[in-house]
Design a protein that fits this description.
Layout lengths: L2 E8 L4 H16 L3 E11 L5 H12 L6 H8 L2 E5 L5 H17 L6 E5 L6 H10 L9 E5 L7 H12 L7 E3 L7 H11 L2 H4 L7 E9 L8 H7 L1 H18 L8 H13 L6 H7 E7 L1 E3 L2 E3 L17 E6 L11 E6 L6 E8 L14 E7 L3 E9 L7 E9 L2 H6 L3 H10 L9 H19 L5 E5 L6 H8 L9 H7 L7
Parallel strand pairs: 1-2, 1-4, 2-3, 4-5, 5-6, 7-12, 8-17
Antiparallel strand pairs: 7-13, 8-11, 9-10, 11-12, 13-14, 14-15, 15-16
Helix pairs in contact: 1-2, 1-14, 2-3, 5-6, 6-15, 10-11, 10-15, 11-15
Bound molecules: 6-O-phosphono-beta-D-glucopyranose.
Length: 497
């Protein structure tokens, strides 16, 4: 059923809106989930006209549209309102426009507000939406909110209280765009529809789990935000822990929102809060220095524009989390994430324990790899026998990578999340109890790092992070399974170390 709904975007002139949000709505429009009865109000400070806003929207979807006519029909549903989030009079103007469009498009008072702007305004906007009567309890009213959700537990709690003045928890959709990714969703299928994995998904058979989110880009033009955030807040508190919770959760009683949520929350609330000494040993931070990859030179983080002199911000983080549930007690969940690493790639390696060796010759551990991006798929590393009269073991990879056609059809994360929000399904959004539990742990690490109790290591641009991130796994008698840098080195494209 197509939805009747009025969207209001705060931050409509921003980069995210153009790159992700308008294309996501357009894909829903093309697939018939939005038809005639929807309108979008874009707000931002700039004084844009409706005509100019439509042009911006059209430009953001040109590659996706079947015809210019289809693009302009879609864009005709977009309206613009210049808005100062602190000025209550502006909310009155917004309310008038909402009423007008609500009637014109018969949106049945259904409203979705999307906050995609500087987080310090989130609370103010929510409060004003309520006090100025825009949130009025008629129709459904949902608030989608971009990250970051606070910068520590205290600010997250404050923000949550502010939002709670206007919205109930079940109306708040905290975005973690990784939850909308096709292969993250696929983990549910792999884990819970295949007894061969379901049966062995525990500390009895799994030795460790390795999650890599590597990025080849640097800080780009986001210095203002990134230099006060760093990798731990930017990628770990949210994306890494969300992914971990899906990998570590128990089987939900059903595949519905409440049951899934309950199991995920259990993981978050069982994250081990290690003592200071263990945290110092188990979490590593790094910052990139100059380097070259593929014959391209890159400057170090400190030489990037607008980065504070002698900034101590980490552009790389690695560590080991533990989940104290019966299922995963004592299994390390290693992660690493950073900017300017060898290549862009998100993947999970599940490293299984070795079985008793009756062969008198070495063989590998089984490894299940989940490729989240840029390619999507799985592979299973197993042991076989080499063809021949003598008995020699040989590793074999069973691989399934999506075809190019599938990749094109994979919904963009934001399309999936918008679709869920339209349908009132918040399974793939972060619940407050998850956010709270993750900050409780991450705050402890941040405290140690802020007070320089742990060295800030460096790593050359193009590498897979500082040496300390490799030593971390050695201290657990294991190693990273994925080394893309080896390939580049072998091909003479990387000459470090
Ligand atoms: C964002 C971070 O949440 O995720 C960025 O703020 C990061 O720093 C991005 O680049 C990575 O997302 P994706 O989907 O490109 O892997």
């Amino acid at each position: 059923m197509p939805a009747n709904v009025l969207f209001t975007f705060f931050g409509a002139s921003g980069d995210l809106a153009k790159r992700k949000l308008y294309p996501a709505l357009f894909r829903l429009y093309k697939s018939g989930h939005l038809t005639e009865n929807f309108a979008v109000i874009g707000t931002a400070r700039r004084p844009w006209s409706k005509a100019y806003f439509e042009e911006v929207v059209i430009e953001s979807i040109t590659d996706l549209a079947d015809s210019p006519r289809q693009a302009s029909e879609f864009a005709s549903h977009f309206y613009y309102q210049s808005h100062d989030v602190n000025d209550t009079e502006h909310y009155q103007a917004l309310k008038d426009l909402q009423n007008e469009l609500g009637q014109k498009y018969q949106t049945n008072h259904n409203k979705i507000f999307f906050l995609s702007m500087a987080p310090e305004f989130f609370g103010t906007i929510a409060k004003n939406l309520k006090s100025e009567g825009i949130v009025d309890g008629q129709g459904f009213e949902r608030l989608i909110i971009e990250k970051p959700f606070g910068t520590d537990l205290e600010t997250a709690e404050q923000l949550n209280q502010d939002l709670a003045e206007a919205f109930e928890e079940n109306q708040i959709y905290r975005i973690d765009h990784y939850l909308g990714k096709e292969m993250v969703q696929n983990i549910f299928a792999v884990r819970f529809a295949n007894p061969i994995f379901e049966q062995i998904w525990s500390n009895q058979y799994i030795e460790n789990v390795q999650i890599t989110f590597s990025e080849s880009i640097g800080v780009e033009d986001r210095a203002g935000y990134y230099d006060t955030s760093g990798a731990l807040r930017d990628m770990v508190q949210n994306h890494t822990l969300q992914l971990l919770s899906i990998l570590a959760m128990d089987k939900p009683a059903s595949f519905d929102e409440t049951d899934i949520r309950e199991e995920k929350i259990k993981v978050f609330e069982n994250l081990r809060l290690e003592d200071e000494d263990s945290l110092k040993q188990h979490f590593v931070r790094g910052q990139y220095t100059a380097g070259s990859i593929n014959n391209k030179d890159f400057v170090g983080y400190l030489d990037e524009p607008n980065i504070a002199e002698n900034s101590q911000t980490e552009t790389f983080a690695a560590g080991a989390f533990f989940v104290d549930t019966d299922r995963f007690k004592d299994v390390p969940f290693f992660f690493r994430t950073g900017k300017r690493m060898t290549e862009k790639g998100t993947r999970v390696n599940i490293i299984f324990k070795k079985t008793d060796n009756i062969f008198g010759q070495a063989f590998d551990r089984n490894v299940l790899t989940i490729y989240i991006q840029p390619t999507e798929g799985f592979s299973l590393h197993i042991n076989g026998k080499k063809v021949g009269t003598d008995f020699k073991m040989t590793p074999v990879d069973l691989k399934f990578r999506h075809s190019a056609e599938n990749l094109v059809n994979s919904p963009e994360a934001y399309e999936k999340l918008m679709f869920d929000a339209l349908n009132g399904d918040s399974t793939n959004f972060s619940h407050w109890r998850e956010v709270k539990a993750s900050w409780r742990l991450i705050d402890r690490v941040i405290d140690l790092w802020k007070n320089n109790h742990v060295p800030l290591h460096t790593y050359p641009a193009g590498s897979m992070g500082p040496k300390a991130a490799f030593e971390l796994l050695e201290s657990f008698d294991t190693e990273w399974h994925w080394h893309p840098d080896d390939w580049y080195r072998e091909h003479g494209l990387l000459d470090q170390q």
